[in-house]
Amino acid sequence: MQLFLDSASLKDVREGMGLGLVDGVTTNPSLIAKERDASRPADARRHYRERLKEICALCPGPISAETVGTTATEMMREAEEYAAIAENIVVKVVLTAEGLRAVRECAARGIRTNVTLCFSATQALLAARAGADYVSPFVGRVDDVSGDGMALIRDIATIFENYNFATHILVASVRHPRHVLEAALIGADVATAPLAILKQLLAHPLTDKGVAAFLKDWEGA
Ligand code: G3P
Question: Active site includes 92?
């Protein structure tokens, strides 16, 4: 299972890569908006493109860049722009009829896609049929409205297995390590999470306690 960092922060990308926890990065308009500061270009599009270039230089894995257009034509214009930034760019489009049109067009032009804002297994089925490379079901947001995010992942995994779809399941909107654990037990291809959650996967208080005890005993040996 691959782990992606869900962030547009260069500091997070550097730290996550340094810890060996990051195979790829997912970004979106909300994450990039958090990164704007006075020293950055006022033009939001230019700022996003520059940030994507910096992230691509830090991480050789797949880097998701989200389109904000609402029509397939607008999405394709952005897709071409993002794809020209680096070879590891994956273009993110929303799961709408226009988004799926753009996915088909990207597939025909050899541009990889990640279909985002997926909340049902039938939506995931349509994304796979359109030729998406990744589909991103938002488990945390499903749980937020009293749904069962992991049941959604199980259903998508069954459908993809039934029909041998090559589309990867990218579990998104991850809120805690248990989401990652359950996604791994189901066999999801990727989980994307903020750095704090990726670091939680590594840490255990009993490991820290055990290390301290070993060192203390070693010093007294
Ligand atoms: O990868 C999607 C993610 O950024 C959304 O997370 O926590 O806003 O639902 P959240």
Answer: yes
